[in-house]
Design a protein that fits this description.
Keywords: ATP-binding, Kinase, Nucleotide-binding, Serine/threonine-protein kinase, Transferase. By secondary structure, the protein is an alpha+beta fold. Helices cover 35% and strands 16% of the residues.
Length: 326
């Protein structure tokens, strides 16, 4: 069943260089979902398949739920849980920066989500505030999303490509040699924590933020500081210092982070004994083989037949008009 029979369009959520994201409603259940539409053809590459297959197996309260994929004549649709609270990044922009307690509240959820990824054999490789969403509840629950750069120990080779967002990349990733994706994820978690506390990136020059060469030099030299006027607890400083270690072999690991005094303070009950937690998301009805078959079909360019309805015509028009970057 395609999008038009099952889902109705509510509004646009965003757009990017390979597609658009839309808020849609399941006509039968009334459930709101986020659907990422990617134009059929060359844009459906191994990264897209990897993103979907890795995401499918990650069912956890702190990870955006994967639901299904479908084809329209022009696009591949990836249906996911909708996080009504938007990006954690936007919340920080509005607040300027978080208190230690608020930063800890979100950091604990990031770590639980990343820990589950790692225990499932997946390293994310592009952890950043823009890839952490919030649900719409008064005490917002954090949801990790976007597995486009993820690597699985089950399906993939050992990571060696330089992927990720410059401000969040670990030093070993920049060396373009083989590295442990899980330990690199820990570094990115540290950048996320620093940004929540300070409201700025640790390795960017605030006077020259677009100078990636300078950012990379600072990452390689682990050169960062806190504003002199800022008060930060000894435990918090200790944790950040143990994350921002150039030698990945000496960097703190996630099991150690989960025992660190700053992390365990005010740890919510539902984040304790994380291994036992199950996601409210049901098992996706499509098997890995089903998904791979649909993705393979999506590699065939858009059909030349007329779009079946207004939604597909609207999508087709948008794809032709602009270059996007989700």
């Amino acid at each position: 069943m395609g999008s038009t029979e099952k889902y109705e369009l509510i509004k646009d959520l965003g757009s990017g260089n390979f597609g658009v994201a839309r808020l849609m409603r399941n006509k039968k259940t009334g459930e709101l979902v986020a659907v990422k539409f990617i134009e059929r053809g060359d844009k459906i590459d191994k990264n897209v398949e990897r993103e979907i297959v890795n995401h499918r197996m990650l069912r956890h309260p702190n990870i955006i739920g994967f639901k299904e994929v479908f084809l329209t004549p022009t696009n591949l649709g990836i249906v996911m849980e909708y996080a009504a609270g938007g990006e954690l990044f936007d919340r920080i922009v509005r607040a300027g920066r978080f208190s230690e307690d608020e930063a800890r509240y979100f950091f604990q959820q990031v770590i639980c989500g990343v820990d589950f990824c790692h225990r499932s054999g997946v390293c994310h490789r592009d952890l950043k505030l823009e890839n952490t969403l919030l649900d719409g509840s008064p005490q917002p629950k954090l949801k990790i999303c976007d597995f486009g750069y993820s690597k699985s120990t089950v399906f993939d080779s050992v990571p060696k490509s330089t992927v990720g967002t410059p401000a969040y990349i670990a030093p070993e990733v920049l060396k373009r040699t083989q590295y442990d994706g899980q330990i690199a994820d820990v570094w990115s978690c540290g950048v996320t924590l620093y940004v929540m506390l300070v409201g700025a990136y640790p390795f960017e020059d605030p006077q020259d933020p677009r100078n990636f060469r300078k950012t990379i030099q600072r990452i390689m030299g682990v050169r960062y500081s806190f504003p002199t006027s800022m008060r930060i607890s000894v435990d918090c400083m200790n944790l950040i210092q143990r994350i921002f270690v150039a030698d990945p072999g000496r960097r703190i690991r996630i099991p150690e982070i989960k025992k660190h005094p700053w992390y365990v303070k005010n740890l919510p009950e539902d984040l304790k004994e994380d291994v036992a937690r199950t996601s409210p998301q049901p098992e996706p009805h499509q098997s890995v083989e089903d998904i791979q078959r649909i993705v393979s079909e999506a590699r065939v360019k858009a059909t030349t037949t007329a779009p079946k309805n207004d939604l597909e015509q609207e999508l087709l028009d948008e794809m032709n008009e602009d270059a996007y970057n989700i």
